[in-house]
Amino acid sequence: MLFIFEIMRMTVKIKKLTLLLLTFIFLICSAFLIHWLEPEMFPDPFIGFWYVMTTVTTTGYGDFVPETTLGRLFGLFLYFVGIGLIGIVIGKIVEGFGIYRKLKEEGKLSYKGQGHYVIVGWSSKAKHTMNEILEIDDKAKILVIDSRAKTPFEHEKMSYIQGDPTDKEILEKANIIQAKAVLIFTQDNEFNPTAADGQSLLTVSAIEGYAVEMKQEIYTIVEILKEKHISNFKHANVDEFVIADEALSDLMAKSAVDKGSSKLIMKLLSRKSGVDIRKIKKQPVWQTYNDAFEELKQLGATLISDRNDFNLLTKLEEPIPNEAELYVICSKEAYEKMATS
């Protein structure tokens, strides 16, 4: 009996993969052994394997039972050793899930997906942006890179990578090359705009440098606090800037001059309004802006601009250039209708 407990003690210390392999070999050998001991009751190894598995898992259907003394002694051996071995294996599996969950929570696992959105720097603004992305695209996957010891927010569609976003290893773990877009945020309550924008510059420079090294393009959107700092990013190949301070000031000024306009703008930016600004592709049948305007109107969408040009109503008869980037205001249903039409 002490010998069996010593075996169990040693088994617990074995590595998981080795333990699984030894358990598999033990079960297969046991199946052949019981078939050899009692060929009439267990006519083939598969029936023997059925008996072994129902024994070590304590299921015990009783449809096949050993009839000889040797067979019953082997059954006792399975009770003492097999059941304990299976218990250890199950414990190791549960332990493995626990370790996986812990590593995922601490942001130490590599992300294997693609087509995800990467948020660099967690803040209240980043959280709000994540929620908006998930409202716009219910199939979206979010990955956050931050230096916190644990994931800052639990969500089934959010993953977390802990580390420095200027570190190449962290960018590789985030599979940033396969991301749809990378959004870089400043911290909440940042009182030093120069330092905050300087950190954003370091981050986006590291990301774009990695993109050049991998000969891929990464779409980057950077939040900066001061517009005058944009010139410092000219070599960083940033795709879009969001200017925090100026955006708030512009909205306040507009609301003061045209009272109530801020509510309209905020509703348009929010998913709660039921409509959104969407970018669409130019269709081959659209020769002029009027062709696009009329067809989109039938689909429930309003054409508002070509890139930054909002004066399309004065250009309805002009041809649409091949490099046009058209934007519309529409509901999610209308956008899906356009995508399938």
TrEMBL record:
Cell compartments where the protein resides:
Cell membrane
Q: Which Pfam families match?
A: Ion_trans_2, TrkA_N
Spans traversing the lipid bilayer: 73-94
Q: Alphabetically list the UniProt keywords.
A: Ion channel, Ion transport, Membrane, Potassium, Potassium channel, Potassium transport, Transmembrane, Transmembrane helix, Transport
The RCK N-terminal domain, residue ranges: 114-248
Top-rank taxon? Bacteria
Task: Fetch the InterPro entries from UniProt.
Answer: K_chnl_dom, K_chnl_Slo-like, NAD(P)-bd_dom_sf, RCK_N
Q: How does it sit in the membrane?
A: Multi-pass membrane protein
In alphabetical order, the GO MF annotations are: potassium channel activity
Q: What reaction does this catalyse?
A: K(+)(in) = K(+)(out)
Q: Which GO terms describe its cellular component?
A: plasma membrane
Q: What is this protein called?
A: Ion channel
